[in-house]
Design brief:
The chain is of the alpha/beta class. It contains 16 helices and ten strands. The chain has two domains: about 280 residues, TIM Barrel; about 70 residues, no CATH class. Strands 3-4-5-6-7-8-9-10 form an eight-stranded parallel beta barrel, surrounded by five helices. Strands 1-2 form a two-stranded antiparallel sheet. The model has no long low-confidence stretch (mean pLDDT about 90).
Length: about 375
């Protein structure tokens, strides 16, 4: 495992995110499968991962409690770092949230604490609610070791939030697709100019870069038959000097071992590898239509009860020629595209800015 120094300490360059822990029977919305999830955490810990990331809303509010039981209660507290977050839309009372998180996580301090999901439509709420001053006080009291924030905001608002606090790190969505086709490159440069290390979320874009299109996959497999498609994305992010730690929301032991192998390998991407990856990326982008990461922020409060990520996944398959995916949309539980009222709540909560109502209208027209 590769490690990097951080303010006198040392943390693994691969971190485990706990937003995608295995669920009972593998069903969305089902409780965490504690036995399988503990196996994943134990595998991560035993293979040298020392950074574990959770948050108040993950797994319907149960992820932090799981981390407390599976990690904190079973291993020496100084052998790993915990990161968790305050999300104003999940619960606006930051004092209550923070105290409850300490209880859930069975600890008297949090190693990395983040203002969670700063977006263009949440930044003013965060700046005015008092949470930054409160969390800064908790850091001064030693209950928070390092204070930062995660951002899905546009570059201009990223600069605004950077100026609003004494931050020690920033977490952003960063991967080879967003580097070229979104604002990730600019965000990376803004944070680098501020002299802060970067924690990476969505390096494999919610799993979307773990399997590309057949044409793009073939380019990567021909270049390195022994590398997984996902490992190309992890290797690319690992190569950026400003990146402190790369988070992966690992669901299986196999995913842990693949990522550990990537972050233990001595070889980095060569110039030839980068050229192949760029060709695969451009081929993939030309074939895919919607950059959904499956974060599910859009599903909360949808008045039609539509499983939006599931619909968008099938939409991409339709766009890539699937003859059966349109029928599968009608078989999904909950609301269907024709039930969409076009309210736009999903657009405002989507880190990717996907125009979901327009897609629902298109699918409704396809269905006749």
């Amino acid at each position: 495992m590769e490690y990097r120094e951080f303010q006198g300490g040392r943390i693994s360059r691969l971190g485990m995110g706990t937003m995608r822990l295995p669920r009972i029977d593998g069903k969305d919305g089902a409780p965490i499968d504690y036995a399988r999830a503990e196996e994943v955490v134990d595998c991560a810990y035993d293979n040298g991962i020392t950074y574990f990331d959770t948050a108040w809303p993950y797994h319907e509010g149960t992820s932090e409690e799981f981390v407390g039981k599976a990690l904190v209660a079973r291993h020496p507290r100084d052998s790993f770092a915990i990161a968790t977050k305050f999300n104003i839309h999940a619960h606006p009372d930051y004092r209550f949230v923070f105290e409850t998180q300490l209880e859930r996580l069975q600890t008297d301090h949090l190693d990395f604490y983040l203002v969670h999901a700063v977006m263009d439509n949440t930044i003013d709420e965060y700046l005015s609610c008092g949470c930054i001053d409160y969390l800064t006080e908790q850091r001064a009291a030693g209950r928070i070791r390092h204070l930062g924030f995660s951002s899905h905001a546009a570059p201009a608002n990223l600069r605004r939030f950077l100026a609003a606090g004494d931050w020690e790190f920033v977490q952003i969505q960063l991967n080879y697709l967003d580097w070229e086709y979104s604002t990730a490159h600019e965000e990376h440069d803004i944070i680098t100019e501020a002299g802060l290390p970067i924690i990476v979320m969505e390096p494999v874009r919610g799993g979307r870069l773990a399997s590309l299109t057949p044409n793009a996959n073939a380019l990567l497999q021909d270049a390195h038959p022994d590398w997984s498609i996902a490992s190309w994305a992890m290797r690319w992010v690992r190569s950026l000097p400003q990146v402190q730690t790369v988070l992966s929301g690992m669901t299986t032991v196999e995913q842990v071992l693949d990522n550990v192998a990537t972050f233990s390998a001595k070889e980095m991407l060569s110039a030839d590898d980068l050229a192949v990856l760029e060709r695969a990326r451009d081929s993939f982008h030309a074939e895919i239509s919607v950059p959904c990461t499956g974060c599910r922020y859009c599903t909360e409060g949808c008045p039609a009860g539509i499983d939006i990520p599931a619909v968008l996944e099938l939409y991409n398959k339709i766009k890539m020629g699937s003859q059966t995916s349109l029928a599968k949309i009608g078989q999904l539980e909950g609301g269907h595209p024709g039930d969409c009222i076009g309210c736009g709540l999903c657009v405002g909560s989507c880190p990717q800015g996907i125009d979901t109502p327009a897609i629902m209208a298109e699918l409704s027209a396809m269905a006749g």
